[in-house]
Design brief:
Layout (H helix, E strand, L loop, with lengths): L1 E6 L5 H6 L5 E6 L4 H5 L4 H10 L3 E3 L18 E7 L9 H16 L2 E11 L21 H6 L3 E8 L26 E7 L10 E6 L2 E6 L20 H13 L5 E3 L7 E3 L12 E2 L1 E3 L13 H5 L7 E3 L5 E3 L9 E3 L4 H9 L8 E9 L11 E12 L3 H23 L7 E4 L12 H4 L7 E4 L11 E9 L7 E9 H9 L12 H4 L20 E8 L8 H12 L3 E11 L6 E9 L8 H19 L2 E2 L1
Parallel strand pairs: 1-2, 1-4, 2-3, 4-5, 10-17
Antiparallel strand pairs: 5-7, 6-7, 8-9, 9-13, 11-16, 12-16, 14-15, 17-18, 18-22, 19-20, 20-21, 21-22, 23-25, 23-26, 24-25
Helix pairs in contact: 6-9, 6-11, 9-11, 13-14
EC number: 6.1.1.20
GO molecular function: ATP binding; phenylalanine-tRNA ligase activity; rRNA (uridine-N3-)-methyltransferase activity
Family: Belongs to the class-II aminoacyl-tRNA synthetase family.
Protein backbone atom coordinates (compact mmCIF):
# COMPACT_ATOMS: atom_id res chain seq x y z
CA UNK A 1 0.00 0.00 0.00
CA UNK A 2 1.37 3.39 -1.03
CA UNK A 3 0.96 6.13 1.55
CA UNK A 4 0.19 9.47 -0.09
CA UNK A 5 0.23 12.87 1.61
CA UNK A 6 -1.61 15.76 -0.02
CA UNK A 7 -0.91 19.31 1.13
CA UNK A 8 -2.66 22.62 0.63
CA UNK A 9 -5.94 21.12 -0.55
CA UNK A 10 -8.52 23.79 -1.30
CA UNK A 11 -11.82 21.94 -1.74
CA UNK A 12 -10.32 18.41 -1.47
CA UNK A 13 -11.49 17.54 -5.00
CA UNK A 14 -7.99 16.45 -6.08
CA UNK A 15 -7.66 14.21 -3.01
CA UNK A 16 -11.09 12.69 -3.62
CA UNK A 17 -10.09 11.80 -7.17
CA UNK A 18 -6.76 10.30 -6.13
CA UNK A 19 -8.41 8.30 -3.38
CA UNK A 20 -10.18 6.18 -5.99
CA UNK A 21 -6.92 4.49 -6.98
CA UNK A 22 -6.47 1.01 -5.56
CA UNK A 23 -3.53 0.26 -3.28
CA UNK A 24 -3.30 3.78 -1.90
CA UNK A 25 -3.72 5.17 1.59
CA UNK A 26 -4.43 8.90 1.37
CA UNK A 27 -3.81 11.55 3.99
CA UNK A 28 -5.39 14.79 2.73
CA UNK A 29 -4.61 18.07 4.47
CA UNK A 30 -5.20 21.78 4.17
CA UNK A 31 -3.74 24.87 5.81
CA UNK A 32 -7.07 26.29 7.00
CA UNK A 33 -9.27 25.12 9.86
CA UNK A 34 -12.19 22.73 9.34
CA UNK A 35 -14.62 25.58 9.96
CA UNK A 36 -13.11 27.67 7.18
CA UNK A 37 -13.09 24.78 4.72
CA UNK A 38 -16.63 23.57 5.40
CA UNK A 39 -18.13 26.61 3.70
CA UNK A 40 -16.34 26.06 0.40
CA UNK A 41 -18.23 24.89 -2.63
CA UNK A 42 -17.92 21.11 -2.96
CA UNK A 43 -15.59 20.68 -0.01
CA UNK A 44 -18.04 18.88 2.37
CA UNK A 45 -18.92 16.33 -0.33
CA UNK A 46 -15.25 15.64 -1.13
CA UNK A 47 -14.40 15.26 2.55
CA UNK A 48 -17.29 12.85 3.02
CA UNK A 49 -16.13 10.71 0.06
CA UNK A 50 -12.58 10.68 1.38
CA UNK A 51 -13.63 9.47 4.82
CA UNK A 52 -15.93 6.82 3.35
CA UNK A 53 -12.97 5.36 1.48
CA UNK A 54 -10.82 5.26 4.61
CA UNK A 55 -8.74 8.36 3.93
CA UNK A 56 -7.52 10.57 6.73
CA UNK A 57 -8.47 14.26 6.53
CA UNK A 58 -6.49 16.79 8.56
CA UNK A 59 -6.87 20.54 8.97
CA UNK A 60 -4.53 23.39 9.99
CA UNK A 61 -1.48 21.54 8.63
CA UNK A 62 1.56 23.74 7.95
CA UNK A 63 3.53 22.37 5.00
CA UNK A 64 6.74 23.84 6.41
CA UNK A 65 6.44 21.94 9.72
CA UNK A 66 5.23 18.50 8.66
CA UNK A 67 7.02 16.43 11.30
CA UNK A 68 5.07 18.36 13.97
CA UNK A 69 1.83 16.91 12.59
CA UNK A 70 2.82 13.26 12.33
CA UNK A 71 4.22 10.85 14.88
CA UNK A 72 7.44 9.06 13.80
CA UNK A 73 5.56 5.85 13.01
CA UNK A 74 3.10 7.81 10.84
CA UNK A 75 5.72 9.39 8.60
CA UNK A 76 7.54 7.68 5.72
CA UNK A 77 5.13 8.78 2.97
CA UNK A 78 5.72 7.30 -0.48
CA UNK A 79 4.44 10.39 -2.26
CA UNK A 80 3.81 13.99 -1.24
CA UNK A 81 1.65 16.22 -3.45
CA UNK A 82 1.54 19.99 -3.28
CA UNK A 83 -0.51 21.55 -6.07
CA UNK A 84 -0.04 25.22 -6.87
CA UNK A 85 1.66 26.41 -3.68
CA UNK A 86 1.45 30.13 -3.08
CA UNK A 87 2.09 32.53 -0.22
CA UNK A 88 -1.06 34.42 -1.11
CA UNK A 89 -2.10 37.89 -2.16
CA UNK A 90 0.59 39.57 -4.24
CA UNK A 91 3.56 37.70 -2.82
CA UNK A 92 6.51 37.95 -5.17
CA UNK A 93 8.82 35.25 -6.47
CA UNK A 94 11.22 35.62 -3.53
CA UNK A 95 8.51 34.89 -0.95
CA UNK A 96 7.30 31.89 -2.92
CA UNK A 97 10.85 30.55 -3.27
CA UNK A 98 11.15 30.78 0.51
CA UNK A 99 7.89 28.87 0.88
CA UNK A 100 9.14 26.12 -1.41
CA UNK A 101 12.49 25.97 0.38
CA UNK A 102 10.85 25.44 3.77
CA UNK A 103 8.42 22.95 2.24
CA UNK A 104 11.19 20.82 0.70
CA UNK A 105 13.16 20.76 3.94
CA UNK A 106 10.00 19.75 5.80
CA UNK A 107 9.14 17.06 3.22
CA UNK A 108 12.58 15.49 3.59
CA UNK A 109 11.68 14.70 7.22
CA UNK A 110 8.53 12.72 6.43
CA UNK A 111 9.30 11.17 3.02
CA UNK A 112 10.28 7.54 2.50
CA UNK A 113 13.85 6.98 1.29
CA UNK A 114 12.74 6.30 -2.29
CA UNK A 115 9.67 8.51 -2.14
CA UNK A 116 8.59 11.26 -4.52
CA UNK A 117 7.57 14.88 -4.06
CA UNK A 118 5.08 16.20 -6.64
CA UNK A 119 4.78 19.96 -7.06
CA UNK A 120 2.39 21.42 -9.64
CA UNK A 121 3.15 24.96 -10.78
CA UNK A 122 1.56 27.33 -13.24
CA UNK A 123 3.26 27.66 -16.59
CA UNK A 124 6.51 29.60 -16.33
CA UNK A 125 6.81 29.57 -12.55
CA UNK A 126 9.28 26.70 -12.29
CA UNK A 127 11.97 28.33 -14.39
CA UNK A 128 12.99 25.13 -16.24
CA UNK A 129 13.27 24.53 -20.01
CA UNK A 130 10.02 22.54 -19.73
CA UNK A 131 8.16 25.83 -19.24
CA UNK A 132 6.93 27.27 -22.52
CA UNK A 133 7.44 30.14 -22.70
CA UNK A 134 10.28 30.13 -20.21
CA UNK A 135 10.64 33.01 -17.81
CA UNK A 136 13.93 34.69 -17.12
CA UNK A 137 15.74 32.89 -14.29
CA UNK A 138 15.57 35.79 -11.83
CA UNK A 139 11.82 36.10 -12.39
CA UNK A 140 11.00 32.43 -11.77
CA UNK A 141 10.60 30.34 -8.65
CA UNK A 142 13.86 28.51 -9.45
CA UNK A 143 12.31 25.31 -8.21
CA UNK A 144 15.19 22.96 -9.09
CA UNK A 145 17.77 25.11 -7.28
CA UNK A 146 15.45 25.59 -4.30
CA UNK A 147 14.79 21.84 -4.04
CA UNK A 148 18.54 21.13 -4.24
CA UNK A 149 18.99 23.00 -0.97
CA UNK A 150 16.99 20.23 0.73
CA UNK A 151 18.72 17.40 -1.14
CA UNK A 152 16.19 16.82 -3.94
CA UNK A 153 16.68 16.48 -7.70
CA UNK A 154 14.08 16.91 -10.42
CA UNK A 155 13.57 13.43 -11.88
CA UNK A 156 10.54 13.99 -14.09
CA UNK A 157 8.29 16.76 -15.33
CA UNK A 158 5.07 16.43 -17.29
CA UNK A 159 1.92 18.44 -18.02
CA UNK A 160 -0.63 18.81 -15.24
CA UNK A 161 -3.80 17.85 -17.08
CA UNK A 162 -6.64 19.00 -14.84
CA UNK A 163 -9.27 17.82 -17.35
CA UNK A 164 -8.14 14.21 -16.85
CA UNK A 165 -8.65 14.34 -13.07
CA UNK A 166 -12.25 13.29 -12.44
CA UNK A 167 -14.15 15.83 -10.33
CA UNK A 168 -11.16 18.11 -9.86
CA UNK A 169 -11.86 21.81 -9.56
CA UNK A 170 -8.97 24.17 -9.07
CA UNK A 171 -9.40 26.96 -6.54
CA UNK A 172 -7.31 30.06 -5.97
CA UNK A 173 -5.29 30.97 -2.93
CA UNK A 174 -7.43 30.01 0.08
CA UNK A 175 -10.35 29.50 -2.33
CA UNK A 176 -10.54 33.03 -3.58
CA UNK A 177 -12.91 33.64 -6.48
CA UNK A 178 -10.05 33.83 -8.95
CA UNK A 179 -8.61 30.35 -9.39
CA UNK A 180 -5.08 29.49 -10.51
CA UNK A 181 -4.56 29.24 -14.26
CA UNK A 182 -3.86 25.57 -14.91
CA UNK A 183 -3.47 25.83 -18.67
CA UNK A 184 0.08 24.78 -19.47
CA UNK A 185 0.72 23.88 -15.82
CA UNK A 186 3.48 21.38 -15.07
CA UNK A 187 3.85 18.66 -12.47
CA UNK A 188 7.42 18.47 -11.16
CA UNK A 189 8.46 15.17 -9.57
CA UNK A 190 11.42 15.26 -7.19
CA UNK A 191 13.37 12.43 -5.63
CA UNK A 192 16.10 12.29 -3.04
CA UNK A 193 19.61 12.93 -4.21
CA UNK A 194 22.62 10.94 -3.16
CA UNK A 195 24.38 12.98 -0.46
CA UNK A 196 27.54 14.76 -1.45
CA UNK A 197 30.42 12.38 -0.70
CA UNK A 198 33.28 13.33 1.56
CA UNK A 199 36.16 11.13 0.51
CA UNK A 200 38.90 10.09 2.86
CA UNK A 201 42.46 9.55 1.64
CA UNK A 202 42.85 6.19 -0.07
CA UNK A 203 45.94 3.98 0.09
CA UNK A 204 46.33 1.67 -2.91
CA UNK A 205 48.41 -1.52 -2.62
CA UNK A 206 50.05 -3.13 -5.62
CA UNK A 207 53.03 -5.22 -6.64
CA UNK A 208 55.88 -3.49 -8.44
CA UNK A 209 59.09 -5.19 -9.55
CA UNK A 210 58.30 -8.19 -7.30
CA UNK A 211 57.82 -5.93 -4.27
CA UNK A 212 54.67 -4.96 -2.41
CA UNK A 213 54.29 -1.21 -2.45
CA UNK A 214 51.55 1.30 -1.73
CA UNK A 215 50.76 4.88 -2.59
CA UNK A 216 48.25 7.53 -1.73
CA UNK A 217 45.77 7.95 -4.56
CA UNK A 218 45.51 11.50 -5.96
CA UNK A 219 42.45 13.08 -4.39
CA UNK A 220 40.52 13.61 -7.62
CA UNK A 221 40.77 9.88 -8.37
CA UNK A 222 39.75 8.38 -5.02
CA UNK A 223 36.20 7.67 -6.21
CA UNK A 224 37.42 6.30 -9.54
CA UNK A 225 40.30 4.01 -8.67
CA UNK A 226 39.59 0.30 -8.63
CA UNK A 227 35.89 0.60 -9.51
CA UNK A 228 35.89 -2.67 -11.44
CA UNK A 229 33.79 -1.53 -14.41
CA UNK A 230 35.42 -4.15 -16.64
CA UNK A 231 35.22 -7.03 -14.15
CA UNK A 232 33.26 -10.17 -15.20
CA UNK A 233 30.44 -9.51 -12.69
CA UNK A 234 29.98 -5.87 -13.79
CA UNK A 235 26.77 -4.64 -15.43
CA UNK A 236 28.33 -1.32 -16.37
CA UNK A 237 27.69 -0.15 -19.96
CA UNK A 238 31.43 0.40 -20.46
CA UNK A 239 32.01 -3.32 -19.97
CA UNK A 240 29.01 -4.16 -22.15
CA UNK A 241 30.45 -2.06 -24.97
CA UNK A 242 33.82 -3.76 -24.64
CA UNK A 243 32.37 -7.27 -24.56
CA UNK A 244 29.98 -6.74 -27.45
CA UNK A 245 32.61 -4.97 -29.53
CA UNK A 246 35.17 -7.75 -29.06
CA UNK A 247 32.49 -10.35 -29.81
CA UNK A 248 31.74 -8.61 -33.11
CA UNK A 249 35.45 -8.34 -33.99
CA UNK A 250 36.07 -12.00 -33.15
CA UNK A 251 33.96 -12.94 -36.16
CA UNK A 252 36.54 -11.31 -38.45
CA UNK A 253 39.82 -11.83 -36.52
CA UNK A 254 41.28 -14.43 -34.18
CA UNK A 255 41.37 -12.64 -30.79
CA UNK A 256 43.70 -12.91 -27.82
CA UNK A 257 42.82 -11.10 -24.57
CA UNK A 258 45.80 -9.64 -22.69
CA UNK A 259 44.00 -7.75 -19.89
CA UNK A 260 45.61 -9.72 -17.09
CA UNK A 261 48.48 -8.22 -15.10
CA UNK A 262 48.67 -4.89 -16.90
CA UNK A 263 50.83 -2.62 -14.71
CA UNK A 264 49.02 0.30 -13.11
CA UNK A 265 52.28 2.19 -12.59
CA UNK A 266 54.81 3.19 -15.22
CA UNK A 267 58.38 4.22 -14.57
CA UNK A 268 59.32 7.70 -15.71
CA UNK A 269 62.53 9.38 -16.64
CA UNK A 270 64.29 12.46 -15.32
CA UNK A 271 63.26 14.45 -18.38
CA UNK A 272 59.59 13.63 -17.84
CA UNK A 273 59.24 15.06 -14.32
CA UNK A 274 57.65 18.26 -15.59
CA UNK A 275 55.12 16.66 -17.91
CA UNK A 276 51.96 18.55 -16.86
CA UNK A 277 49.44 15.82 -17.64
CA UNK A 278 50.83 12.99 -15.53
CA UNK A 279 49.77 11.87 -12.06
CA UNK A 280 53.11 11.32 -10.37
CA UNK A 281 52.87 9.25 -7.22
CA UNK A 282 55.02 8.75 -4.13
CA UNK A 283 55.66 5.12 -3.29
CA UNK A 284 55.71 3.85 0.26
CA UNK A 285 56.96 0.45 1.40
CA UNK A 286 53.97 -1.58 2.52
CA UNK A 287 55.24 -1.75 6.08
CA UNK A 288 55.16 2.06 6.34
CA UNK A 289 51.80 2.86 4.82
CA UNK A 290 50.67 6.47 4.89
CA UNK A 291 47.52 6.32 6.98
CA UNK A 292 47.42 9.87 8.24
CA UNK A 293 45.18 12.64 7.02
CA UNK A 294 45.92 14.77 3.99
CA UNK A 295 48.56 17.43 4.37
CA UNK A 296 47.61 21.05 4.83
CA UNK A 297 46.58 22.35 1.42
CA UNK A 298 46.13 20.24 -1.68
CA UNK A 299 49.32 20.94 -3.62
CA UNK A 300 50.91 17.53 -3.06
CA UNK A 301 47.71 15.67 -3.86
CA UNK A 302 47.31 17.68 -7.05
CA UNK A 303 50.79 17.51 -8.51
CA UNK A 304 52.54 14.49 -6.99
CA UNK A 305 55.70 15.58 -8.84
CA UNK A 306 58.21 15.09 -6.06
CA UNK A 307 61.47 16.94 -6.57
CA UNK A 308 63.91 15.80 -3.89
CA UNK A 309 66.94 17.43 -2.33
CA UNK A 310 69.17 16.10 -5.10
CA UNK A 311 67.40 18.18 -7.71
CA UNK A 312 67.48 21.91 -8.31
CA UNK A 313 64.59 23.51 -10.13
CA UNK A 314 64.65 25.83 -13.09
CA UNK A 315 62.31 28.72 -13.80
CA UNK A 316 59.61 26.27 -14.92
CA UNK A 317 59.86 24.18 -11.77
CA UNK A 318 61.62 21.33 -13.63
CA UNK A 319 64.22 19.20 -11.93
CA UNK A 320 67.94 19.45 -12.72
CA UNK A 321 70.00 16.64 -11.27
CA UNK A 322 72.88 17.64 -9.04
CA UNK A 323 76.14 15.86 -9.73
CA UNK A 324 76.85 12.92 -7.44
CA UNK A 325 73.28 12.52 -6.20
CA UNK A 326 71.33 9.28 -6.32
CA UNK A 327 67.94 9.84 -7.93
CA UNK A 328 65.16 7.42 -6.89
CA UNK A 329 62.98 5.93 -9.57
CA UNK A 330 60.01 8.01 -10.63
CA UNK A 331 56.57 6.36 -11.07
CA UNK A 332 53.25 7.59 -12.32
CA UNK A 333 49.77 6.24 -13.02
CA UNK A 334 49.57 4.85 -16.53
CA UNK A 335 48.20 7.44 -18.98
CA UNK A 336 47.87 4.93 -21.83
CA UNK A 337 47.96 1.20 -22.61
CA UNK A 338 50.05 1.74 -25.74
CA UNK A 339 53.35 1.05 -23.94
CA UNK A 340 51.95 -2.26 -22.62
CA UNK A 341 51.06 -3.32 -26.15
CA UNK A 342 54.44 -2.20 -27.43
CA UNK A 343 56.27 -4.13 -24.71
CA UNK A 344 54.35 -7.30 -25.60
CA UNK A 345 55.38 -7.00 -29.26
CA UNK A 346 59.01 -6.35 -28.41
CA UNK A 347 59.02 -9.50 -26.28
CA UNK A 348 57.71 -11.45 -29.26
CA UNK A 349 54.46 -12.22 -27.47
CA UNK A 350 52.29 -11.38 -30.47
CA UNK A 351 51.08 -14.04 -32.87
CA UNK A 352 51.11 -12.57 -36.42
CA UNK A 353 47.61 -12.07 -37.79
CA UNK A 354 45.99 -12.30 -34.35
CA UNK A 355 44.21 -9.29 -32.88
CA UNK A 356 45.47 -8.76 -29.34
CA UNK A 357 43.15 -6.90 -26.96
CA UNK A 358 44.23 -4.85 -23.93
CA UNK A 359 41.78 -2.83 -21.84
CA UNK A 360 41.74 -0.98 -18.55
CA UNK A 361 41.48 2.46 -16.94
CA UNK A 362 44.08 5.12 -17.79
CA UNK A 363 44.75 8.37 -15.96
CA UNK A 364 45.83 11.87 -16.91
CA UNK A 365 45.42 15.45 -15.82
CA UNK A 366 43.51 17.50 -18.35
CA UNK A 367 41.67 20.75 -18.88
CA UNK A 368 37.98 20.82 -18.03
CA UNK A 369 35.98 20.40 -21.25
CA UNK A 370 32.79 18.41 -21.99
CA UNK A 371 34.74 15.36 -23.22
CA UNK A 372 37.95 15.56 -21.18
CA UNK A 373 38.20 12.86 -18.55
CA UNK A 374 40.91 12.48 -15.89
CA UNK A 375 40.27 8.75 -16.11
CA UNK A 376 38.68 6.60 -18.79
CA UNK A 377 38.74 3.02 -19.99
CA UNK A 378 40.95 2.49 -22.99
CA UNK A 379 40.87 -0.54 -25.27
CA UNK A 380 43.93 -1.12 -27.42
CA UNK A 381 43.71 -3.49 -30.37
CA UNK A 382 47.12 -4.53 -31.65
CA UNK A 383 48.11 -6.67 -34.59
CA UNK A 384 51.53 -7.59 -36.01
CA UNK A 385 51.46 -7.84 -39.81
CA UNK A 386 53.95 -8.16 -42.66
CA UNK A 387 55.52 -4.99 -43.94
CA UNK A 388 53.61 -3.65 -46.92
CA UNK A 389 50.24 -5.00 -45.77
CA UNK A 390 49.68 -2.52 -42.94
CA UNK A 391 47.43 -0.19 -44.96
CA UNK A 392 45.04 -2.97 -45.95
CA UNK A 393 45.11 -4.26 -42.35
CA UNK A 394 44.22 -0.80 -41.03
CA UNK A 395 41.38 -0.44 -43.50
CA UNK A 396 39.99 -3.88 -42.70
CA UNK A 397 40.30 -3.40 -38.96
CA UNK A 398 38.76 0.08 -38.93
CA UNK A 399 35.90 -1.01 -41.21
CA UNK A 400 35.08 -3.84 -38.82
CA UNK A 401 35.26 -1.47 -35.84
CA UNK A 402 32.96 1.03 -37.55
CA UNK A 403 30.48 -1.70 -38.51
CA UNK A 404 30.52 -3.12 -34.98
CA UNK A 405 29.95 0.27 -33.32
CA UNK A 406 27.14 1.12 -35.74
CA UNK A 407 25.55 -2.26 -35.07
CA UNK A 408 25.67 -1.67 -31.31
CA UNK A 409 24.21 1.81 -31.74
CA UNK A 410 21.31 0.52 -33.85
CA UNK A 411 20.31 -1.94 -31.12
CA UNK A 412 19.79 1.04 -28.81
CA UNK A 413 18.67 3.94 -31.00
CA UNK A 414 16.88 4.35 -34.32
CA UNK A 415 19.11 7.30 -35.25
CA UNK A 416 21.74 6.55 -37.84
CA UNK A 417 25.34 6.87 -36.69
CA UNK A 418 28.14 7.84 -39.07
CA UNK A 419 31.79 7.15 -38.30
CA UNK A 420 34.70 8.19 -40.47
CA UNK A 421 38.42 7.44 -40.71
CA UNK A 422 40.37 10.67 -41.12
CA UNK A 423 43.98 11.55 -41.70
CA UNK A 424 45.31 12.79 -38.38
CA UNK A 425 48.05 14.97 -39.82
CA UNK A 426 48.28 18.29 -37.95
CA UNK A 427 45.28 17.38 -35.79
CA UNK A 428 45.45 18.26 -32.12
CA UNK A 429 43.66 15.31 -30.57
CA UNK A 430 43.38 15.96 -26.85
CA UNK A 431 40.50 13.67 -25.99
CA UNK A 432 42.61 10.50 -26.14
CA UNK A 433 45.94 10.15 -24.41
CA UNK A 434 48.94 10.80 -26.60
CA UNK A 435 51.57 9.86 -24.04
CA UNK A 436 53.40 7.23 -26.04
CA UNK A 437 56.33 9.59 -26.60
CA UNK A 438 57.18 9.28 -22.90
CA UNK A 439 57.88 5.58 -23.04
CA UNK A 440 57.93 4.25 -26.58
CA UNK A 441 59.06 4.76 -30.12
CA UNK A 442 55.54 4.69 -31.52
CA UNK A 443 54.97 6.95 -34.47
CA UNK A 444 52.57 9.85 -34.44
CA UNK A 445 48.85 9.24 -34.68
CA UNK A 446 48.07 8.52 -38.32
CA UNK A 447 44.29 8.31 -38.33
CA UNK A 448 41.37 9.38 -36.16
CA UNK A 449 38.15 7.38 -35.93
CA UNK A 450 35.63 10.18 -35.72
CA UNK A 451 31.89 10.33 -35.13
CA UNK A 452 31.75 13.77 -36.71
CA UNK A 453 30.11 13.47 -40.11
CA UNK A 454 31.50 16.81 -41.26
CA UNK A 455 35.01 15.40 -41.13
CA UNK A 456 36.34 18.18 -38.91
CA UNK A 457 37.38 15.90 -36.04
CA UNK A 458 36.27 18.44 -33.47
CA UNK A 459 37.13 17.87 -29.85
CA UNK A 460 34.87 15.25 -28.40
CA UNK A 461 34.17 13.63 -31.76
CA UNK A 462 37.28 11.44 -31.84
CA UNK A 463 36.54 8.06 -30.25
CA UNK A 464 39.68 6.27 -31.42
CA UNK A 465 43.10 6.65 -33.00
CA UNK A 466 45.21 4.46 -35.27
CA UNK A 467 49.00 4.10 -35.07
CA UNK A 468 51.65 2.02 -36.81
CA UNK A 469 55.19 1.28 -35.70
CA UNK A 470 58.18 -0.66 -37.02
CA UNK A 471 60.10 -2.99 -34.71
CA UNK A 472 63.45 -3.76 -36.24
CA UNK A 473 64.73 -5.72 -33.22
CA UNK A 474 61.84 -8.18 -33.60
CA UNK A 475 61.82 -8.54 -37.37
CA UNK A 476 62.49 -6.28 -40.30
CA UNK A 477 59.36 -7.61 -41.92
CA UNK A 478 57.02 -6.88 -38.99
CA UNK A 479 54.85 -3.80 -38.71
CA UNK A 480 52.59 -3.31 -35.70
CA UNK A 481 49.17 -1.76 -36.13
CA UNK A 482 47.53 -0.26 -33.05
CA UNK A 483 44.00 1.03 -32.57
CA UNK A 484 43.06 2.81 -29.35
CA UNK A 485 39.40 3.24 -28.45
CA UNK A 486 37.89 5.30 -25.64
CA UNK A 487 35.30 2.89 -24.25
CA UNK A 488 33.74 5.59 -22.08
CA UNK A 489 33.05 7.86 -25.06
CA UNK A 490 31.67 4.91 -27.01
CA UNK A 491 29.30 4.01 -24.14
CA UNK A 492 28.13 7.63 -24.02
CA UNK A 493 27.63 7.71 -27.77
CA UNK A 494 25.74 4.43 -27.96
CA UNK A 495 23.55 4.92 -24.86
CA UNK A 496 22.90 8.65 -25.25
CA UNK A 497 24.74 9.68 -22.07
CA UNK A 498 25.51 13.38 -22.37
CA UNK A 499 27.85 13.79 -19.38
CA UNK A 500 30.92 11.58 -18.81
CA UNK A 501 30.59 12.03 -15.03
CA UNK A 502 27.37 10.01 -15.10
CA UNK A 503 29.44 6.90 -15.88
CA UNK A 504 31.05 7.25 -12.46
CA UNK A 505 27.95 8.01 -10.39
CA UNK A 506 27.32 6.01 -7.25
CA UNK A 507 23.56 6.46 -7.66
CA UNK A 508 22.04 3.02 -8.20
CA UNK A 509 19.46 4.49 -10.59
CA UNK A 510 22.16 4.57 -13.25
CA UNK A 511 23.06 0.87 -13.33
CA UNK A 512 19.40 -0.15 -12.91
CA UNK A 513 18.88 1.06 -16.46
CA UNK A 514 21.34 -1.56 -17.75
CA UNK A 515 20.15 -4.89 -16.29
CA UNK A 516 22.52 -7.80 -16.97
CA UNK A 517 24.71 -5.44 -18.95
CA UNK A 518 22.08 -4.79 -21.58
CA UNK A 519 22.74 -1.64 -23.58
CA UNK A 520 19.80 0.76 -23.52
CA UNK A 521 19.11 4.41 -24.18
CA UNK A 522 19.86 6.23 -20.93
CA UNK A 523 17.18 8.34 -19.29
CA UNK A 524 18.52 10.93 -16.89
CA UNK A 525 17.13 10.88 -13.35
CA UNK A 526 18.33 14.45 -12.68
CA UNK A 527 16.74 16.96 -15.03
CA UNK A 528 17.70 20.58 -15.66
CA UNK A 529 20.40 20.89 -12.98
CA UNK A 530 21.00 24.62 -12.47
CA UNK A 531 24.38 26.10 -13.35
CA UNK A 532 26.11 28.44 -10.92
CA UNK A 533 28.58 31.04 -12.19
CA UNK A 534 31.53 32.37 -10.19
CA UNK A 535 34.47 34.49 -11.32
CA UNK A 536 37.98 34.61 -9.90
CA UNK A 537 40.75 37.06 -10.77
CA UNK A 538 44.35 37.11 -9.61
CA UNK A 539 47.88 38.30 -10.29
CA UNK A 540 50.39 35.77 -11.59
CA UNK A 541 53.75 35.63 -9.77
CA UNK A 542 56.36 37.68 -11.60
CA UNK A 543 58.40 35.75 -14.13
CA UNK A 544 56.48 32.48 -13.73
CA UNK A 545 54.50 30.54 -16.31
CA UNK A 546 50.90 29.99 -15.28
CA UNK A 547 50.09 26.26 -15.08
CA UNK A 548 46.57 26.08 -16.47
CA UNK A 549 46.37 22.28 -16.18
CA UNK A 550 47.13 22.52 -12.45
CA UNK A 551 44.55 25.32 -12.18
CA UNK A 552 41.88 23.08 -13.72
CA UNK A 553 42.99 20.09 -11.64
CA UNK A 554 42.52 22.05 -8.42
CA UNK A 555 39.04 23.05 -9.62
CA UNK A 556 38.19 19.39 -10.22
CA UNK A 557 39.46 18.42 -6.79
CA UNK A 558 37.89 21.06 -4.55
CA UNK A 559 34.52 20.75 -6.30
CA UNK A 560 34.40 16.98 -6.61
CA UNK A 561 34.09 17.30 -10.42
CA UNK A 562 31.26 19.83 -10.12
CA UNK A 563 33.03 22.40 -12.31
CA UNK A 564 31.91 21.82 -15.90
CA UNK A 565 33.54 24.79 -17.61
CA UNK A 566 36.37 27.25 -17.05
CA UNK A 567 36.66 30.22 -19.36
CA UNK A 568 39.29 32.95 -19.48
CA UNK A 569 37.21 36.12 -19.73
CA UNK A 570 39.83 38.80 -19.21
CA UNK A 571 43.58 39.34 -19.00
CA UNK A 572 45.49 42.47 -18.13
CA UNK A 573 49.18 43.37 -17.98
CA UNK A 574 50.68 46.43 -16.37
CA UNK A 575 52.83 48.24 -18.90
CA UNK A 576 55.18 49.67 -16.30
CA UNK A 577 55.89 46.43 -14.39
CA UNK A 578 54.78 43.67 -16.76
CA UNK A 579 52.73 42.09 -13.97
CA UNK A 580 49.85 40.06 -15.43
CA UNK A 581 46.32 39.54 -14.14
CA UNK A 582 43.89 36.84 -15.29
CA UNK A 583 40.15 36.53 -14.74
CA UNK A 584 38.44 33.16 -15.13
CA UNK A 585 34.77 32.24 -15.07
CA UNK A 586 33.85 28.92 -13.46
CA UNK A 587 30.56 27.15 -14.12
CA UNK A 588 29.46 24.68 -11.45
CA UNK A 589 26.81 22.09 -12.32
CA UNK A 590 26.01 18.59 -11.14
CA UNK A 591 24.73 15.79 -13.34
CA UNK A 592 23.51 13.27 -10.76
CA UNK A 593 23.00 14.90 -7.36
CA UNK A 594 21.59 18.01 -5.73
CA UNK A 595 23.89 21.00 -5.75
CA UNK A 596 22.82 24.13 -3.89
CA UNK A 597 24.06 27.68 -4.31
CA UNK A 598 25.41 27.59 -0.75
CA UNK A 599 27.50 24.50 -1.45
CA UNK A 600 28.89 26.13 -4.57
CA UNK A 601 29.77 29.29 -2.65
CA UNK A 602 31.74 27.16 -0.18
CA UNK A 603 33.52 25.37 -3.07
CA UNK A 604 34.47 28.69 -4.62
CA UNK A 605 35.95 29.94 -1.35
CA UNK A 606 37.98 26.75 -1.02
CA UNK A 607 39.09 27.05 -4.65
CA UNK A 608 40.35 30.60 -4.06
CA UNK A 609 42.24 29.43 -1.00
CA UNK A 610 43.86 26.51 -2.82
CA UNK A 611 45.02 28.36 -5.93
CA UNK A 612 46.63 30.93 -3.67
CA UNK A 613 48.33 28.19 -1.67
CA UNK A 614 49.28 25.84 -4.53
CA UNK A 615 49.94 28.19 -7.45
CA UNK A 616 51.23 31.21 -5.56
CA UNK A 617 48.81 33.66 -7.17
CA UNK A 618 47.68 36.90 -5.53
CA UNK A 619 43.90 37.11 -5.40
CA UNK A 620 42.19 40.31 -6.43
Amino acid sequence: VRRILLLGEGNFSFAASLCQATGTQVVATCYESEEEVSGRDGAPESIRRLRERGAEVLFSVDCTKLKDHFLPEKREFDSIYFNFPHCGRKAGVVKNRELLAHFFHSSAEVLAEEGEVHVALCNGQGGTPADQPRREWHNSWQIVAVAAGAGFILSSVHPFKAENIHGYKCTGYRSQDKSFCVEGALNHIFTRSMPRPHFQPVIYKTELESQNVSFQVPQILVDKINRGFLEPNSNHPVRAVKEKLTAELSQAFPLHNMDHCLPLLHQGHISDVCHPNIFWIILSPEETLMTGEMSDGLADAVSFSHVDSCRDTDENGCGNVQEGCHIPKQYYLRPSLFPCAQAAIQKGAFVPGTLHVLSGPVFRKCLITPYSMPVFHEMVLACAVKRGTEDSCIQMLVNNIKTSIQSLHQTVSSFKLSLSLQEATNLEITELNDFAALESQLSKIQYCISMDTSGSCEKGSCVGVVRTAHYEPVSRDVVAVFVSLNLDLLAMLICGISDWRMLWTSDTRFLRQFPRGELRLFKSFSLYPPPYIHDVSFWIPDGERFDEVAFHTIARQVSGEMVVAIQLIDSFQKSETGQKSLCYRLTYQSCDRALSCQEVAEMQLLFRKEIKHSLGVTLR
